[in-house]
Design brief:
It is built from 6 helices and 5 strands; from the N terminus they run ααββαβββααα. The chain has 174 residues and is an alpha+beta fold. It is globular and about 45 Å long. The chain starts with a helix and ends with a helix. 25% of the residues are buried.
């Protein structure tokens, strides 16, 4: 089987959501401390994104980390240091201008390398900040995720596809 088909199967994991957990912030901080111990990662910019970064909404218990690099794609040593930290390199996985990594263990992480202050960076940060600023919109997003799962969708790719229009609408309105 080709590597990309295998990784597509890995990526299309079963999903569930949980109530917001205050420990997600601490898990993010602990993971960043570990990553910044790597020589080629210590000067990069890290942000907590995704639903685990938004207070009071339900989220997949997977912490999303975005890493901004000045020059995209990054040097190979950056990828190697992330892999050495327990992450599986998934390449772009359908999002151009982003390199994607996953780490599944006792705590789960998705890591996204993008150009610092590039389009992908700006959209992810804008969405997170908007959801934090407007809790009623964040609650609507949380409700949508519950509806998607209640409708029988339980794999990541289909779940993400069902949320995409909501995210696009928010980004258009910002």
């Amino acid at each position: 089987m080709e590597w990309w088909r295998l990784k597509q199967l890995i990526l299309n994991e079963k999903v569930h959501i949980e109530n917001h957990n205050l420990h997600w912030r601490y898990d993010f901080n602990d993971e960043i401390k570990m990553l910044k111990n790597k020589p080629h990662l210590k000067t990069l910019t890290f942000e907590h994104i995704g639903s685990t970064s938004i207070p009071n909404i339900k989220a997949k218990p997977i912490i999303d980390i975005i890493i901004g690099v000045r020059s995209f794609p990054p040097e190979k040593i950056v990828i190697q240091e992330i892999e050495a930290s327990g992450y599986t390199y998934m390449r772009e996985m359908s999002v151009s201008d982003r390199l994607y990594f996953i780490k599944r263990d006792i705590k789960n992480f998705n890591l996204h390398i993008v150009e610092y202050k590039g389009d992908v960076w700006k959209k992810d940060i804008l969405f997170r900040d908007y959801m934090i600023k407007y809790p009623e919109k964040a609650q609507a997003y949380s409700d949508l995720k519950e509806q998607i799962l209640a409708g029988g969708i339980d794999t990541l790719l289909e779940y993400s596809e069902k949320k995409a229009e909501f995210i696009s609408e928010v980004l258009r309105d910002i």
